[in-house]
Amino acid sequence: MILIGAPDDIEIVEKVARRVPVVYVGRHLEAEGIDSVSNDDHLGASLLVRHLVECGHKLIAHIDGGRGAGARRRREGFQVAMRAHGLEPQVIPGGYTLDAGSKGAKDALAKHPRPTAIFAANDLAAIGVLNSVLGAGFKVPGDIAVVGYDDMPFAASETLSLTTMHQPIDRMATQCIDCLIARIQDPDGPGTRVLLSPHLVARRSTLGSKVDSAVAQERQRQAAGPRRRRAERIAK
Questions:
Q1: The pTM is what?
Q2: Same-domain pairing of 72 and 89
């Protein structure tokens, strides 16, 4: 059995695992005899903080994901990374919903001094943040940069162009199947904990027009390739 988005109560998971082979997905679970596969949310949060700092931000707020899968490690990763950069972390209670992101953004905008960047715990909450920020008359990223987490398909849309953290879903799925097969073959073996590294996807919500310039340069490079090869063939 593969448990996705299950309760983080280890006792409940252990009861299920005593009945059937289990792989726990989405949270880094410290439990003997239970296999877990998750994204390294602590690392992902720290990479987002580093990106925002490199963009020049110092006042960064994090709207957390409440009790959602991975939310605690994202929150902790944010706090550790901020302090490592000599900055004070601002954590605003939230959740993995559009409404939670919208409310959290309004709370952030009411702070003095106002943060110049907001890290939402997931992409859906980030849309809520964008709604509130843009609705209040601020420009993104000119006044406030916004980042999400998960890299959902809509994050890459021309309208949103949301900077976010990409989770290696395909690798997670493969690891889940491998762990489940190994557990079936060895029911009493030690628990395996797989932690996969995410990667940053930077878009206009933090980079603005720099992204458009980079895309244009890449298109020019790709277009130049065939022209260069044709010229070489003619020269020969």
A1: 0.78
A2: yes
